[in-house]
Amino acid sequence: MANARITVHTAAAIDRIAPEVHGHFSEHLGRCIYEGIWTSDSADEGGFREDVVSLLSDLEIPVLRWPGGCFADDYHWEDGVGPREERPRRRNLFWAQGPEELPEESNAFGTDEFLQLCERIGTEPYLAANVGSGDPQEAADWVEYCNYDGDTELADRRRENGHEEPYGVKYWGLGNENWGCGGRMSPEQYAREYRRFATYVGTMDNLMLDHELELIACGFENHEWNRRFMEEVRDNKWGVEFPLDHLTLHHYYGRTMTVSEADEEQYDEFLAEALEMEYHIERIAAAIDAVATTRDIGVIIDEWGAWHYEANADNGLEQPGTVLDALSAAAVLDIFNDHSDVLTMTNIAQTVNVLQCLVETDENDAWARPTYRVFDLYAPHKGNEAVQTSIETPTRGLDGEDEEDLPFVQASASTRDGAVYVTLTNLDCREAHSVDISVEGLVPDAANVEGSVLFADHEPDAEVNADNADEFGARPLDVDVDGTLSVDLEPATVAAITIEE
Ligand code: AHR
């Protein structure tokens, strides 16, 4: 008999899952951009690594955030455009640029390189403008350089630099972590800065042909900060509206832990910390809702993922790609589906080599990490209608007085054209669980049911490398169909089931 049960409420729609929820983040940090995405040795005309471009293209990334991170509020975009040999070398205040490097920035990879990368891999760019040490003029000029189609010096400069047509960059972040590395501002102070920047950047929208800039403000994991920001930023006593389309926060987890040295209790604690994502989404949505409706202002989690202790050992923030981390990503993606009514985008940190990247490289190869496999498995949800699920699951108590139990079986579901997509995860790293799944309004026929499973042959601490990467791919999952669906989920596995009409 099954010890977990999932009911998919096909008639209880939540909202469309914004494809941008599967977005990514790349910063001038360690080997993410230099060596990871771009290298002066590349045979590719644009300097990109063909192997990385190919892996990222296959994943159909909907949106990519750049250039930071903390780097964004120390970055002056004009340093990174024009002839490469004339671009200034600057210190990188926060991060080294490779294992042996000083924290310096060559500016070899700048706006045009990033936007060409986005064109190559078919992704929407999201640029983060410098609020901490920049000014509104610089930010508005960046919009003009990228998007303006008229007869100005900046539009001409873009044309001279090889891009005749405007790039049409839609997403503009105003600052990054402005409560921290982006200027250590109080919520009121950042709200005033945000209004000032949004006035100039937002008004640029009137000069664009398609009028579609979306402006993004930085929030915090401290929800009192978010509430105070929202109150101040929306203080509309002068009756002047200005654009604010999304509010963000960052959620990293696992900072005190090294996966290879951890035990199963620490795995549980790590996974429970990942599940706190739900609390943060609900709290930031409530902070928005108190002042506006959540439909007016979307929630973005524009940095998230596992950040382990060993990543702090050098400024490159590298850590192994493990099954455990991938497991946490699956559970978080399920939470994202369940909150599709408020979430407009998320960006896992950071695309290549850094933190919970999806792609890892060495000099010769690039390969998919287990987290890449999870994104691939969950890809069919993108753009679907999320529907509610009820889950009965075994749990295990965590040590520590204030901590809750870890619920082992996580799941989410979506529908499209009569088909139902269910993803589920067994967060129990010790025991298998059998799961019954009933789909309301549907008596499934075995011929129309397909299942896949990840990591059934691997331990949670299994690490990917160039030689074993192919072994982490999806395998067929046995689904027993008898009115309901039944599956056995091995410890630390992720599965997907599709039921066609
Ligand atoms: O992703 C690494 C860093 O984490 C980013 O630069 C910063 O925004 C966050 O604190």
What keywords describe this structure?
501 residues, alpha/beta, Immunoglobulin-like, TIM Barrel, ten-stranded mixed β-sheet, eight-stranded parallel β-barrel, 10 helices, 26% strand, binds alpha-L-arabinofuranose
Low-confidence stretches: none
- Derived structural class: alpha/beta
- Morphology call: globular
How many discrete structural domains?
A: 2
Largest sheet: 10 strands, mixed
Specify the number of helices. 10
Average pLDDT across residues?
94
Q: Radius of gyration, Cα only, in angstroms?
A: 23 Å
Percent helix range: 10-25%
- Strand arrangement, largest sheet? 21-20-24-18-17-14-1-19-23-22
Give me the CATH fold name of the largest domain.
Answer: TIM Barrel
DSSP E strands, number: 24
- By CATH's scheme, which homologous superfamily of the largest domain applies? Glycosidases
- Assigned CATH architecture of the largest domain: Alpha-Beta Barrel
CATH hierarchy, class of the largest domain: Alpha Beta
Bound molecules: alpha-L-arabinofuranose
Strand content: 25-35%
Gap between N and C termini = 27 Å
Keywords: Carbohydrate metabolism, Glycosidase, Hydrolase
InterPro entries: Alpha-L-AF_C, ASD1_cat, GH, Glyco_hydro_b
Domain Alpha-L-arabinofuranosidase C-terminal: 302-493
EC number: 3.2.1.55
Overview of the structural elements:
Residues 302-493 form the Alpha-L-arabinofuranosidase C-terminal domain. Belongs to the glycosyl hydrolase 51 family. With 501 residues, the protein is an alpha/beta fold. It folds into two domains: 4-8 and 387-500, Sandwich (Immunoglobulin-like), CATH 2.60.40; 17-384, Alpha-Beta Barrel (TIM Barrel). The protein contains ten helices and 24 strands. The protein has helices at residues 50-59, 111-121, 136-147, 153-160, 187-204, 223-233, 264-275, 277-289, 323-338, 370-378; strands spanning 4-16, 23-25, 63-66, 90-91, 104-105, 124-129, 171-174, 214-218, 246-253, 298-306, 343-349, 359-361, 366-368, 385-392, 395-396, 406-407, 409-416, 419-426, 433-439, 449-454, 475-476, 480-482, 484-489, 493-499. The strands form five sheets. A ten-stranded mixed β-sheet has the order 21-20-24-18-17-14-1-19-23-22, with helices on one face. An eight-stranded parallel beta barrel has the order 2-3-6-7-8-9-10-11, surrounded by five helices. α6 (223-233) runs parallel beside α8 (277-289). It starts with a strand and ends with a strand. The mean pLDDT is 94. It binds alpha-L-arabinofuranose (AHR). Alpha-L-arabinofuranose is lined by residues 27, 68-70, 176-177, 250, 303, 349-350, 355.
